[in-house]
């Protein structure tokens, strides 16, 4: 009798594990790079918006978006879970004040999807 119960429990866990293996979120971006063009250092904050879709089979969560290594870059993003087939947005706000020259920044996106972090880039040219 005890063997049947143990076998039943083990089988149940195996079925759940196999079912969960196929039930994963996946983030797919429409575009991972953005060209801000020529921007004026005194022109105020500029923004780049990246739209993504959850192409997986489980809810997708954005855990974090890095600031690109400086205080001049501030991300905002969809905080609630994104259902399979639904879309969300990540917007990067960049303040060019006190900067000039070529701009080439990267931000890293961490989600609950399997695999490594995604990288978003934005470029441009800052003039005084």
Offer a few descriptive terms.
128 residues, Immunoglobulin-like, 4-stranded antiparallel sheet, disordered N terminus
Describe this structure in a few short sentences.
The protein has one helix at residues 2-22, and strands at residues 27-29, 33-40, 46-54, 62-65, 73-77, 87-94, 101-111, 118-127.
Record the SSE blueprint.
Layout: H1 2-22, E1 27-29, E2 33-40, E3 46-54, E4 62-65, E5 73-77, E6 87-94, E7 101-111, E8 118-127
Parallel strand pairs: 2-8
Antiparallel strand pairs: 1-3, 3-6, 4-7, 5-6, 7-8
Descriptive notes:
With 128 residues, the chain is α+β, with helices and mostly antiparallel strands. It has one domain (25-127): Immunoglobulin-like. Helix content is 16%, strand content 45%. Strands 1-3-6-5 form a 4-stranded antiparallel sheet, with no helix packed on it. A 4-stranded mixed sheet has the order 2-8-7-4, with no helix packed on it. Mean pLDDT is 87; it is low at 3-19.
């Amino acid at each position: 009798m005890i063997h049947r119960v143990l076998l039943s429990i083990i089988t149940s866990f195996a079925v759940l594990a196999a079912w969960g293996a196929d039930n994963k979120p996946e983030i797919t971006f429409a575009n991972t790079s953005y060209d801000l063009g020529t921007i004026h250092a005194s022109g105020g904050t500029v923004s780049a918006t990246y739209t993504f879709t959850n192409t997986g089979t489980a809810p997708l969560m954005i855990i974090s978006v890095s600031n690109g290594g400086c205080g001049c870059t501030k991300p905002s993003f969809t905080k609630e879970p994104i259902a399979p087939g639904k879309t969300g947005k990540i917007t990067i706000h960049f303040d060019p004040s006190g900067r000039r020259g070529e701009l080439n920044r990267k931000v890293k996106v961490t989600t609950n999807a399997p695999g490594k972090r995604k990288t978003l880039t934005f470029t441009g040219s800052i003039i005084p």
